[in-house]
Amino acid sequence: MTHSPRVSHFELFLFGKPEWEFPDGPMTQERLKALGEDLKDRLDAAARAVQVLKEDGWDVELVGYSLSFAHSSLTFPDDAAARTYLQKLGLDPETFEVFELEPEDEEDDEA
Fold first, then answer.
1. What does each C-alpha distance from 48 to 15, 20, 70, 89 come to in angstroms?
2. In a 3-state reduction of DSSP, which class is residue 98?
3. What pLDDT, on the 0 to 100 scale, is given for residue 74?
4. Fewer CB atoms inside 10 A, N or C side of the chain?
């Protein structure tokens, strides 16, 4: 028996290496200030996401350059349902990566 994928967790990118944040162009005071403002906005949004999702029973951990959110008992049937959930919590669903988990085939479990 084959099951459809289920959304299992979210990731929220925080920030990258300097060469990722400044891909091209000369280094200027204005670019540094603009990045500082952008980083502050991203980290403020991340802090709010941590608060909101933890209050809703999600676990959070740092994974590389992102925060990873997982819930022990909550899954979604697809990407759209997961994004609707995030939006209902007042979070911007476009800032999250949504990952699906392929459940193991039940026939494989019986073998």
1. 16, 24, 16, 11
2. strand
3. 86
4. C
Is 100 within 8 Å of 79 (Cβ atoms)? yes
**Angular region, 60: left φ>0, alpha ψ -120 to 50, beta rest:** beta
Which SS3 state, helix, strand or coil, does residue 54 take?
helix
User: DSSP states of 15-36 as a string?
Assistant: ---HHHHS-SS---HHHHHHHH
Reported as type and span, the H/E element at residue 107 is: helix 106-110
Tens digits of residue pLDDT in 81-108 = 999 999 999 999 999 999 877 655 434 4
pLDDT for 102 = 64
Which residues, including other chains, have CB under 8 Å from residue 59's CB and lie 6 or more apart? 69, 70, 71, 72
Amino acid at 100: E
For residue 9, what are the contacts with CB-CB under 8 A and spacing of at least 6? 68, 69, 70, 71, 99, 101
pTM over 0.85: no
Token duo for residue 4: 């459809």
